[in-house]
Amino acid sequence: MSTPNRVYIARLAGVAVFDPNGDQVGRVRDAVARMRPTQRPPEIVGLVAEMPMRRRIFLSINRITSIDPDAVVLGSGTLNLRRFEKRPNELLVLQELLDRRVQLDTGQAGSVVDVAMECSRGGEWALTRVAVREQTGRLSRRGHLHQVEWDRVRGLGVVGDNRGTANLLAVLEDMRPADLANALQDLPDARRNEVAAALDDERLADVLSELPERDQVEILAGLDRERAADVLEEMDPDDAADLLNELPPPEQDVLLDLMEPDEADPVRQLLRYASGTAGSVMTSEPVILPPDATVAEALARIREVQLSPAVAAQVFVARAPLTTPTGRYLGMVHFQRLLREPPADLLGGIVVNDIDPLRTSTSLTEITRRMATYDMVGMPVVDRNNRLVGAVTVDDVLDQSLPRDWRDRDAAPTPSATDDGTGDDD
């Protein structure tokens, strides 16, 4: 194996995994160690890699030919695609050891910030060294960092409830919200809720939108109501409405009353629409501009970083007021058309209105058919007075078309039961 003799595992988190042909198959998310009955350090048996569609699989350490800070390379053979499941005598190093509060043999208390695995001359990988930061008791001062042998640290043998979240958050901070949501699903419920609660409101709102409804509700229930309302305010109104729909009506009312009125009003409106209709799946905050706005103004608006690609793909043109429900809806302009027109031209001169907008009662089946027929990324939704009340985008349609539990990793189909999720995948 062409690889450094010692590798610190937290530095591997997110590193790309490549097959022998140089094609990326996933990214490293953790290392799997097997506890031993003796005092010997745990043996590393493999890595956990996350593949497309959020599937996590086991990669036997015997299949890995190279490990470095930029890439993990696999040898020849067929990947075992069965979803990874941890065995009772196994340990997920980052998930279970990072931030563990421990004690050095000198009596100094500290917390684990990283763990190193090392390869012996016989080719066996084991956890050999632990990076421990001292606890100083002073918020303004960081404790000294010790890198010591595994057997010099007490408190590593039994998984307890004395682990913090700071270092785990540091490992997870660069993940996309969907990937972070996926990582949270692998944590025990108490640990997941602890990590989720430590995220800031905006980050937690993004992550909640990517979780199954069951996990959304459990995490929200673990927050105090004021914090829960703050997080709901950071969510897109349609996502907040979907989450509130999972709660009993009295709890919905309490949280909505705690939200700022201008944040709660569009959510209340969305909750009034029947499930499976355009009104229930639309976003009430598309990009809306008046007909006398210029192409340059429209391009500046859709460049705003908080807009999703689907929402930024088109500008809807309407008479004032420009918040939903707007004045009379006039039409829409796709961003590709904006790129082709002179910056000083007015939107009223290039607006397209030859496709009938959706109504709030339009069914999901009809929405899907019409968007596919016209190759649309987004479609306007109007009320009976032809006022724009929102827009259905392609991500809304996909979210509603997939099975209800598609975000739940445990519900995903698995390969043949004869595969071994944690055994050798040669």
Question: Please, could you describe this protein's structure?
Answer:
Strands 2, 3, 4, 5, 6, 7 and 8 form a seven-stranded mixed sheet that branches. Strands 1, 9, 10, 11, 12 and 13 form a six-stranded antiparallel sheet that branches. The chain has 426 residues and is an alpha+beta fold. Helix 3 (177-185) crosses helix 5. Among the domains are: 6-92, Roll (SH3 type barrels); 200-272, MgtE N-terminal fold (Alpha Horseshoe), CATH 1.25.60; 288-401, CBS-domain, CATH 3.10.580. It is elongated. It has helices spanning 93-97, 166-172, 177-185, 189-198, 201-208, 213-221, 225-234, 237-244, 249-258, 261-271, 278-281, 295-302, 309-312, 335-340, 364-373, 394-401, and strands spanning 6-8, 16-18, 24-34, 43-50, 56-60, 64-68, 71-74, 90-92, 101-104, 109-119, 125-134, 145-149, 153-154, 288-289, 314-318, 329-334, 358-359, 378-382, 388-393. InterPro entries: CBS_dom, CBS_dom_sf, Mg_transptr_MgtE_intracell_dom, MgtE_N_sf, MgtE_transporter, SH3_actinomycetes. One of its GO terms (molecular function) is magnesium ion transmembrane transporter activity. Residues 404-426 are annotated as: Disordered. It comes from Micromonospora robiginosa.
Strand-pairing-aware structural class = alpha+beta
CATH level-1 class of the domain at 288-401: Alpha Beta
Number of strands: 19
CATH topology of the domain at 288-401: CBS-domain
How far the N terminus sits from the C terminus, by CA atoms, comes to 16 Å
Helix % is 25-40%
Query: How many helical stretches?
Result: 16
Radius of gyration: 26 Å
How much β-strand is present in the residues? 15-25%
- Looking at how many chains there are and whether they match, the oligomeric state comes to single chain
Mean pLDDT: 85
CATH architecture assignment name of the domain at 288-401: Roll
